[in-house]
Every structure is written in C-alpha cells, then in structure tokens.
Amino acid sequence: MDVDAYLAHRMAALHEETAQIKDPRVFDFAYVPEQPLPRDEAKPIIDAFLKYAQTGVPQNLVVLGSRGCGKTLLLRYLQRLLRERLGLEILYANCRNHNTTFKLLAEFLGASLRGTSLQELYGRFEARFPGRTVVILDEVDLISKKDPNKDILYFLSRSERAYMVVCLSNNPRLLSELDTSIRSSLQADSLYLKNYDARQVQEILALRAAAGLHAWREEDLARIAALTVQRTNADVRVAIKTLFYAVTGEGKSVQEAFEHAQRDITIDLVADLNDRNLLILRAVQRTKERFVKRVFQSYEQLSREVGEASFSYVYFLNNLSYMQSLGLVLLVQTKVNRSYTSTVSLLFNEQVLETIYRLRFG
Ligand SMILES: Nc1ncnc2c1ncn2[C@@H]1O[C@H](COP(=O)(O)OP(=O)(O)OP(=O)(O)O)[C@@H](O)[C@H]1O
Ligand SMILES: [Mg+2]
C-alpha cells in the first residue's frame, strides 16, 4: 500500500466530510446553547428558584420527562443564568457519574475524601455552603443500590441550612419508588416536561445548524424532526446526531443518517442498562406471544437460568414502564376475549440486544 497516497486520499475525504462544520461543539450532547429554544414548562421552575432566593424557603422539585426531552439542558441553562441574577449557589451533579451520597458530596466539595465518614462530610458540606444553595441531582434514579436510602436526599432536605433540591429523572415512577420517609421530608413538587413536537425539534435543529454549520437545507431539518418524533419518542439526541451524520455524509440520505444515529444511541442505552433490565428485554425477545404475563414468566425462567434473583411482578412492570420512557419498548393494550391485556414490543433492532446480551451473559 502506498501510505502517502492513502493518507492524502483520506485527508481529502475527511476535509470534505467536515467542510460544512463551522463549530463542532454544537454536536456535543453536553453543549449548552447561549439561547435554548424557550419552553413554558420552565416557568414554575424559575418561580421556585426565585421564591427560594427571596424567602429562603425551599420548594424541592422533581422534574420528570422522557429521554432526550431537555431536562438536563434546561436545568444547566437555569444554573448558568440564575446563579448570577439571583445570587444563589447552584450545584449540579449527575448521579450516573457520582452514584452514592459519599461520591456526590465529595464531588461538591471538590476533593477526594477517602477515609472520611459520611457524618463528617455532612458537616463539611454545611460549613462550605452556609447560604442559600440549590442542589440539582441529575438522573437521580441511578444512585447505586449500595445507597438504598438515597441518604443525600435525607441529608439535604433535613439540614438546618434549608437547602433546595431539584431531582431529574426519566423514570415516571421515581417518587412512588422512593421510601415514604424520604418522600415526606422532601415534599417535592413534580413537574413533567412534555416531549417536543416536530416543529419544536425542527427549531432546535435550526438553532444548532445556525451555530454550527456553514450550510444546510431546511427540508432536511424538517425530515429529521419528523422521523425523530414518529420513531423515537422525540429524543432530541437522535435528531442532533442525525444532523451531524447527514452533513458529514455517514449514510447517503437523511433516512440512513437517522438509522445510523438511532442505532448508535440505542447501543449506548442498552449497554447502560442493569442486568435485570437486560434480562427483561431478552425475555421479551424470547417470548412468542408477547403478553405481559407471558413475558414475566419467561423473565423468571431466564433469571433462574443465569442465576439472577428476579423482580416481583410489580417491579417488573415498573421496569417495563421505565424502559418505555427510554423508548426501548412499547406497551399496548389489546383486547383478547372481551378483556384487555397488554402486549410488549421492542422498539429497536434486536441484533443490538443480541450482541450486548452475549457480552454480558455469555
Ligand atoms: N430547548 C432546547 N434548546 C436547544 N437544545 C435542546 C433543547 N432541549 C433539548 N436540547 C438538546 O437535546 C439534547 C437532549 O437534551 P437533554 O440532554 O437535556 O435531555 P434529557 O431530558 O436530560 O435526557 P435524559 O433523560 O436521557 O438525561 C441535548 O443535546 C440538548 O442540548
Ligand atoms: Mg439528562
């Protein structure tokens, strides 16, 4: 092989693929735009921050909404905006990356505090943040099973410092799954962020395109927005990734770019699931007639085969609805012999499941 010729060829190709990109940062999922697309649901959240800043009385919040509906972006944006305007301390952490009370507090204190007791950490946190402080806990349902009582919620809501807590989650049952005593000390209001409609997704794409691209076609944005809303539960991440692939030529058409983006995102999502949820998906796949009860039986059977403790039926249903909020499955009511029953379908390519399942369970 002629290395020089090959390199020259690849560089020219790469140059062409990226020529349309003015600012690649806008395709990073963690990017917070200067001006996100406004949404009315921000108002009660802003009001709660305002009231806390003025009176010191916290109104804790639980912000729910399906995957990719803009929860993280909204709160990170408000953090940036309101910190200065309201003079509040606003802390943010994602429980995916800091999944115990200990790790979260160490993150807020900005230190590795191995060997310190939790009690000491509470003391240090209160000393460090004596004033009005909002703590945003993103993906709060990912706090580890090793911290079953989610002690941080207890600590923050009971502290004499009257901290305000904002929990984000895509699990609609988050509050009902919390321990009653935590729920009653939190006294949180829940807010639900609706999925964007196709017009809003298109506007978000147009904002990204204007910030990050030299040229684009409005009709492509409309097509991407329509596909995203119809086929993914309006996950804006898929839309943004599709736009990226569409301009860099991964996939010949918008449709192919969309499929590519969806596959990438599904792989991340399925790979992040815990073992029991992965077993549930596998059970769906293995069950011929996918009535929920049948799937449950096959899930129990499968758990025995791989030596995992299985969920109770109620937990199983909760986890199915969690995976529905992730856009992985769909529960549909159907009528069988005059009574209603639910069936489950998988919303993604089964090959992805096959591969990840084998990696995990052999
Ligand atoms: N109003 C908006 N304006 C501009 N971009 C947006 C808006 N809402 C969402 N986005 C973008 O869509 C993507 C998904 O949003 P985000 O990460 O906030 O979703 P999420 O609800 O936190 O999802 P998850 O439940 O998976 O954590 C991000 O890249 C975000 O920047
Ligand atoms: Mg998020």
Describe the structure.
The protein has 362 residues and is of the alpha/beta class. The protein folds into three domains: 86 residues, Helicase, Ruva Protein, domain 3, CATH 1.10.8; 151 residues, Rossmann fold; 89 residues, Orthogonal Bundle (Arc Repressor Mutant, subunit A), CATH 1.10.10. Helices cover 55% and strands 12% of the residues. α4 runs parallel beside α5. The two termini are 38 Å apart. The site of magnesium ion (MG) has 3 residues, from α3.
Sequence-ordered SSE layout with sheet pairings:
Elements: H1 3-18, H2 42-55, E1 61-64, H3 71-86, E2 89-94, H4 101-109, H5 118-128, E3 133-138, H6 151-158, E4 164-169, H7 174-177, H8 180-186, E5 189-192, H9 198-212, H10 218-232, H11 236-248, H12 254-272, H13 275-286, H14 292-306, H15 313-325, E6 329-336, E7 339-346, H16 350-361
The structure holds adenosine-5'-triphosphate (ATP) and magnesium ion (MG).
Residues 71-72, 138 line the site of magnesium ion.
